[in-house]
Amino acid sequence: MNTHAFSEQRLPPWRRAVLKVGSSLLAANGGGLSTEYAQAIAGFVVASHKAGREVVVVSSGAVAAGRAIMREQPHDGAEMAERQALAALGQARLIGFWQGLLDRQVAQVLLTHDDLRNRRRYLNARATLSALLRHRAVPVVNENDTVSVDELKLGDNDNLAAIVAALVDADVLFIATDIDGLYDADPRRHPDARPVEVVPQLTPALLSAAGGTGSAIGTGGMRTKLEAAQRASAAGVATVLFNGTRADVLEALAQDRLRGTRIHALRSRVAVRKHWLQNAPAEPGGVVVDAGAANALVEKGASLLPGGVVTAEGDFRRGDMVEVLLRDERGTRRVARGVSQYSAADIRRVARRHSRDIESILGYSYGDTIVHRDDLMLL
């Protein structure tokens, strides 16, 4: 047994977090869903809400819940289809499980990695999660295991959680584990392994020291958690690893006192976002605006609204990087660049109109802005 304990450290302030909870914590006894550890984890979420914070939960456990319903193992030769069926059966029970533990409405969000690689679907997912948080719901995110064959094979909700953390502009990614944090060796095999409490930057040595899968229920080990932390760090999100089986650790965590591992972000979220906006290739054409709109963007830090748009040039689509152009007697000048919430064809239809008219003109709406200020960089 390892005798080296983690000391307590203070967490930096945070407002929005993603919390990843694996199957080993939700199906603790190898059967269906259990509140043995989930009760304290939910208590952390509730305490965070009371402190005015937002938490997105990325939860495994659908297959484990479905297995408890079926009471049988997948048949040989049809394992993937059977596991997908178990996921479909268990997902409803998983959402009901979280709803019974939390203090506000729970919303199911099923994603695949493909949803988050495709820029337009990425924007749709981001808008949905933002709206849920705005309405004070708790998004419970899981992979869409019933159709995601490759993702189900990997079973890697750790990396999905890192992607979601970047998606919602989280300040921190909390990953609940069944050990106290990161050690310099596998503590199950090396009793003299020492805690690693702060990681300024993940190194190959730390990744190689990470152990394998620790549970027959879950499919992610410490290495996948570090890979997720590496992904989050590159997106400007810090990661915290802690023991989700210990109620005292969770109670302290709700008070910003960590006994576990904190992995720093490589750069701030603002710096990461700015670098991406500056360097992502823009589509041909652009959005032509009037002088009033250009002034609002430059002087007031405003979003680009349809009323200030003259026209759209080119054939770009929703989610593409576009340039914002001012055209007058002095010629054409680039004012800004950013992610367009609408296609060029849609923008031409709503140009010079009020934001409230977008839905009546198009038959749908992706929001009031053509380019939101969070997705825009001045040139």
Automatic annotation (TrEMBL):
One of its GO terms (biological process) is L-proline biosynthetic process. It holds the Pfam family PUA. GO terms for molecular function: ATP binding; glutamate 5-kinase activity; RNA binding. Keywords: Amino-acid biosynthesis, ATP-binding, Cytoplasm, Kinase, Nucleotide-binding, Proline biosynthesis, Transferase. Residues 285-371 form the PUA domain. Pathway: Amino-acid biosynthesis; L-proline biosynthesis; L-glutamate 5-semialdehyde from L-glutamate: step 1/2. ATP binds at K20, T177, D178, T219, G220, G221, M222, R223, T224, K225. Its EC number is 2.7.2.11. It is found in: Cytoplasm. GO terms for cellular component: cytosol. Its main location: cytoplasm. Gene3D superfamilies: Acetylglutamate kinase-like, PUA domain. Belongs to the glutamate 5-kinase family. HAMAP family: ProB (MF_00456). This is Glutamate 5-kinase. It comes from Luteimonas marina. The lineage of its organism: Bacteria, Pseudomonadati, Pseudomonadota, Gammaproteobacteria, Lysobacterales.
